[in-house]
Amino acid sequence: MKRIGVFVCHCGINIAETVDVKRVAEEAKEMEGVAYAQDYIYMCSEPGQTLVREKIVEEKLDAVIIAACSPTLHESTFRAAAEEAGLNPWQCEIANIREQCSWVHTDREKATNKAIHIVATIVQKTKLNESLEPIPVSITKKALVIGGGIAGIQAALDIADSGYKVILVEKESSIGGHMAQLSETFPTLDCSQCILTPKMVAAGKHPNIELMTYSEIEGIHGYVGNFKVLIRRKAAFVDWSICNGCGLCMEKCPAKVSSVFDRELAKHGAIYVPFPQAVPNKPVIEQDSCIYFKSGQCRLCEKVCEIGAIDFEQNDQFVEEEVGAIITATGFETLPVADLAEYGAGDVPDVIDGLAFERLLSASGPTVGEVKRPSDGMVPKEIVFVQCAGSRDPERYKPYCSKICCMYTTKHALLYKHRVHDGQPYIFYIDIRTGGKGYEEFYQNAEEEEGIIYLRGKVAKIFRDGDKTVVWGTDTLTGRNIEIAADLVVLATAVIPKDSTAELAQKLRIQTGPNGFLAEAHPKLRPVESINSGFFIAGAAQGPKDIPETVAQASGAACKVISLFSRDHLEQDPAIAWVDEDLCGGCRICISVCPYDAREYDEEQGIALVNEALCEGCGSCVAACACGATQQRNLSDSQIKSMVTASLGGE
Amino acid sequence: MFEPKIVCFLCKWCTSAGADLAGTSRLKYRPNGVNIRFMCSSRVDPEHILWAFHEGADGVLIGGCHPGDCHYEDGNYKTQARVSLLNRLLEDFGIDTSRLRLEWISAAEGAKFANVMNEFTEELRLKGPLKLAAREMAK
After folding, report:
1. A36-60: per-residue pLDDT in tens?
2. Nearest CA of chain B to the CA of A78: how many Å?
3. Are residues B31 and A595, on separate chains, in Cβ contact within 8 Å?
């Protein structure tokens, strides 16, 4: 009989408050196979791990169970500790009595009983656990970065600089993302283009970076170290390999299309680059707007292109790439103004969002940096800025704080004052949140020196009255209702995940959180990893964040990829399927259910084997096997059965 | 008051992660279920379910990823097929099919996991203990 040690963690009071940890340890001692049991306040701390290691030796333990937090947190920690003391890592199991017990129950007696059952269940599993060796697998030292905003660019540059190849995939025709739309950046007021475009150029020219813009991820297969990715390169109808970016086609195109980049404050042709500093600086034809595609006549762009780069016959191309790690950095969107009914639902022309105001402020924007309102081009003398437009509003919109708005709204008001000296900006806010280096000082200066009027309260209604846009709000500090007949209203709309995030996450099979942002493996300790190995996340796709945070997270994700690539090979979990050759009747049902072609029929022996390199350990073939010939290592049917019995309080 | 016993077979990637989220969010739910974590819900053999009923479970919950979200391509579809087939047999064994519950709960749905556990516990409480001929005979 195996000698099992059970170590029950208090986790401070996190477990001990609701679960009687001493009783769990005492009960565990009585369980068949358990040779030793003890509780300790912090099992994951150095003294806690030392205790486990010492007891393995002293008590001659063959296996250990740590009854503590979720295995996603510390399974690897304790397996490493067990290995140091001479145990095979697969002889260490975790009983989750925190996330799935102490934190979710209130009745101490019942929670303690449940914790005892959880431990008993894991004891049954552990009794029959085999010692295993990880399966070595090769690794493709090439990364895929999805999203070419500042997060994707930074991550790609960091990986490329360390000597590994990177494919940077961007949905739009140019990299740059939202940062390329910004005028100046808080709190230093550096021009966004001036700090971003050099990085765009560096990414475009880097020998280790392959840019795939105007491209999307179609599908993905494989596992960490060995992914196969199918990428769709959308038809640009321009042969980029010969186009020199002269721009003549764009000048001559007679179609008029609202510019997404300029937040519909300007128009461009059906053939266009989103902005002049685009990387690559190659145009695409928007099929839905092109006069030739719609009516069969025009082809003016083709006529003026001297090198013959226009190609109306072009089709989408599909390319398959092999990569070892994937960073998702797909960024954010803002809540459409049209969704905010009380703020005019997008029907009031002089109600715009923060990104549109960025374009009005930008020296390369549609007004060349002059603040002119959309309805009639007038320079607004009074502007109302409305913060938390859709944020911190759990009843109607988004429950969370969008984090960047307090700072960018202050910046907007300040830049407006710099452009229109006699103008008056008002800012409606709930709270001013200025966590960040130099942020509070920036806000203090704006409030005290720049004549911006801050009004604490939420705006109730915005409507058009003649050429004015009327704002109704309440100043909660004086208790007075306020009405401002403004010339322009700027809404700090909620930061939301890009609408394509959900679909992409489903393709990649990575997790999203309750608000649709990508979920990290651990909110504090693994902020740039997805729970699925080989997938990393960076930037606002994970949650609202400003540029410095985004860049830091991107470099963090890149660092994780580089550390993965620095290994000679990866280790695959050996808890996979195996076949009892004497039992297998060769029915081949396993082959039909395996999603990875890991089951193959051996004609000579007349049985179905497991290809260990391909098996991912899902266990589907094990459940399908009619005669019990296929089993899963360390999760056999007999283990499961005894676990079930133990979970119900049986012997 | 009757406290039903529930065995929960949860996939590691979605439902067990959702159950963890319920914990980190400090949601509260009835303590009647013990979770057994599999890599995929498709590891659940109908035999495991029958065994759970045999061993005293009043209800069995299987939690997997939402359709299309399975970490192993389509494991959850296989689970669904197996559960549908098993449901036909459960009645013959004298087990009400509502005692076997299949739920798609993602890693983001901590609240759903808590709600399902509360609801299922309440339902089983109203139904009363599972009386199984085989179990009675063994007594």
Report:
1. 999 999 999 999 999 999 999 999 9
2. 18
3. no
Task: Indicate if A420 and A490 belong to the same structural domain.
Answer: yes
- Give strand pairing partners of A71: none
Same domain, A369 and A448: yes
Residues A360 and A348: their CA atoms lie apart, in Å, by 17
* The predicted structure's pLDDT at residue B92: 87
Which pLDDT score is estimated for A518?
Answer: 94
Residues of chain B contacting residue A598, judged by C-beta atoms under 8 Å apart: none
Residue of A109, A530, A640, A651 to mutate when probing chain B, most B C-beta within 10 A:
A640
Asked if A96 and A70 touch (Cβ cutoff 8 Å), the reply is: yes
CATH of the domain at A25: 3.40.50
pLDDT tens digits for range A600-623: 999 999 999 998 878 889 999 999
ipTM of this complex: 0.97
When divided into structural domains, chain A yields a total of: 5
Strands A209-212 and A165-169: parallel
The span from the CA of A374 to the CA of A264, in Å, is 10
Find out whether A149 and A332 touch, Cβ atoms under 8 Å.
no
Mean pLDDT over residues A115-125, rounded? 98
Angstrom distance (rounded) from CA A19 to CA A565 = 42
Contact A529, A130 (CB under 8 A): no
The structure tokens 């140091």 sit at A84
pLDDT surpasses 80 at A516: yes
Instruction: Count chain A–chain B contacts defined by CB atoms under 8 A.
Output: 146
The CATH number assigned to the domain with range B8-138 reads 3.40.50
> Are A119 and A206 found together in one domain?
no
Compare A30 and A513 and report the one with higher pLDDT. A30
Domain that holds residue A524: 142-234+316-331+498-565
Rounded CA-CA distance A213/A146 in Å is 10
- Kindly state whether residues A196 and A222 are assigned to the same domain: yes
- For chain A, percent of residues with pLDDT exceeding 70: 100
CB atoms closer than 10 angstroms to residue A568: 7
Whether the Cβ atoms of residue A269 and residue A256 lie closer than 8 Å to each other: yes
Residue A463, pLDDT > 90, answer yes
pLDDT in tens, B43-67: 999 999 999 999 999 999 999 999 8
Q: Which residue of A has its CA nearest to B107?
A: A511
Sign of CA dihedral A352, A356, A358, A359: negative
Question: Does residue B27 contact residue B79 with C-beta atoms inside 8 Å?
Answer: no
